[in-house]
Design brief:
Shape: globular
CATH topology: Arc Repressor Mutant, subunit A
CATH superfamily: Winged helix-like DNA-binding domain superfamily/Winged helix DNA-binding domain
Largest sheet: 3 strands, antiparallel
Order of helices and strands: HEHHEEH
Helix content: 40-55%
Radius of gyration: 12 Å
Strand order of the largest sheet: 1-3-2
CATH architecture: Orthogonal Bundle
């Protein structure tokens, strides 16, 4: 199975996006992932990824910033990590 967990197909897309951040170890600012990368991994439109993650930011599950190349990066907060772990129980 490798290092990355297989995504559970029954999860709705917003939860899959959070799970993917977790699987990519995006749990701190220095480990944040570009939204383009998530779009490629999940084969989902970039605007959908950013809209979903920005909504999660309002709820306190993600944080984001623009890197020095002008690309938006996201990572899970402590609450976001707990939310992802709850998906497995």
């Amino acid at each position: 199975m490798g290092k990355v967990r297989i995504l559970r197909e029954e999860l709705p897309l917003p939860e899959k996006i959070l799970q993917t951040l977790h699987n990519l170890c995006a749990t701190a600012p220095d480990l944040a992932r570009r939204s383009e990368e998530l779009s490629q991994v999940l084969q989902v439109d970039l605007s959908e990824i950013e809209k979903t993650l920005d909504n999660y930011k309002i709820e306190g599950f993600t944080e984001s910033f623009v890197d020095n190349e002008g690309k938006k990066r996201y990572y899970l907060t402590g609450s976001g990590i707990i939310k992802v772990c709850a998906l497995f129980t």
